[in-house]
Amino acid sequence: MLFHTAEFFFLLIITFICYYLFRNARLVILSVANCLFYAAASWGFLGLFLGMSFTSYLIARRIPKGQSRFWLTIGIILNVANLAFFKYSMFIIQNLEAVTGLTLVAKDGFWAHIVLPIGISFYTFQLIAYLTDVYKGRIEPTDSYLRFWVFIAFFPHQLAGPIMRGHEFMPQVERTHKLTLTPTEFKYGVYLILWGLAKKILIADQVSPIVDEYFKNPADLTMAQAWTGAYLFGFQIYADFSAYSDMAVGLGYLFGYRLPLNFLSPYISANATEFWRRWHITLSSWIRDYIYIPLGGSRKGRLRKDVNLLAAMLISGLWHGAMWTFVIWGFLHGMLLIIHKWYADGLKKLLDALPSPGKAVSRIIAVLYRIIAVVLFFHITTVTWVFFRAESVQDAFDYITAMFDPAGWANFVQQISSQAFYLQIVLVLYAAHLLEYIVRRNEEGIAAWWHRLVPSPVRGIVYALLVFVVIAMIKGEKHDFIYFQF
């Protein structure tokens, strides 16, 4: 069930009304809504989700009672095995066939008909985090499966995050019957939902068919076409994924829950480290806490730190999809993180050795450096997105070859002219990205200005128009959220 459909808004309105009418039955109401939301995709996969969550719930309750490491291991193995079976089994078989030259499974046999349950990567990571946190004593295991199901399957974040932690969300779930909703919180939640809807429908869904055309035959692209398509995909995936996250956070507000921020204008990043503090923040922190640090983090020397970092990003890439393109994408970002940390250390030593140029000059240098670094890293990120979007490794390399084709400079002006319209769209999208950053940083001030200077009848008319706009938007053609496939 997509967030931008009439069916979803019907479910939302019914759930919202019942939630506030029947305070003592809130957990039951949310549990039913969670099941209906997921069952819209597949009743069978709902059964799988319920089974894995109930098994993890039982294992978590066993962990503090003895043999805790054993039960943690069992829980992690079961969850990883479930994810691996549905997401990676065919990938492994295909690669074994390619290496051995043998036909291991029939092309139309059982393995070829495995369907990936939507949201499985997200709920698997949440279950593993919950088990690990119980094992480490960060949280106490809940004694109610009803509360646990609401925690793990709360429908706004169920399919594509944010990835929730037990210490963040479970205490809120336990206070569900006490949660209240103020008019300010209601308006803020609706504001985030509308913000997400606008990004999804007005940007991501409009750009999607254009991007498809660019990536259809990458070997035939000119240099300007290749860069234009890559630029547009970067904004498509950001608008698509951040739209879901914004709507999830906004929906959480409507029920009194606070979900964590998942994006913070990543395309203003000056380096890879900053990018991963702004892009898919809950995944970045999950990778850090449950993969990078357990591998040793930075505690065992510089070389081991780099190896751990690269391993963590390779796993991050593979988590996104069972294709070598995603592995390469994770590898590239791992290398970018390593290179930046080496570069930052070297630059600090160099600056410490040089005389200070004075505050005024230092500020000018810092601003210029920041601008150059942001522009440069934006283009580096654009190149890495090719591996994320391409249908195969060969397509990705064909696409990047076109991006860096030396022959493209011979008629550079003509090529740019042929892409002028879409390049102007790219500039508008980047300006909107900056505007979003400014607005999100100044939300309280803008809200105060809005209520102080705009008369209430005018505000009412604007709100009514927004409702009509939403109705019009959800009537159009629908595109799945990109991260539903992960």
TrEMBL record:
Bilayer topology annotation: Multi-pass membrane protein
Keyword entries, A-Z: Acyltransferase, Cell membrane, Membrane, Transferase, Transmembrane, Transmembrane helix
Highest taxon listed in the record's lineage: Bacteria
Keyword Transmembrane annotated: yes
Location of the protein in the cell: Cell membrane
InterPro entries: Ac/AlaTfrase_AlgI/DltB, AlgI, MB_O-acyltransferase, MBOAT_fam
Family: Belongs to the membrane-bound acyltransferase family.
Name recorded for this polypeptide: MBOAT family protein
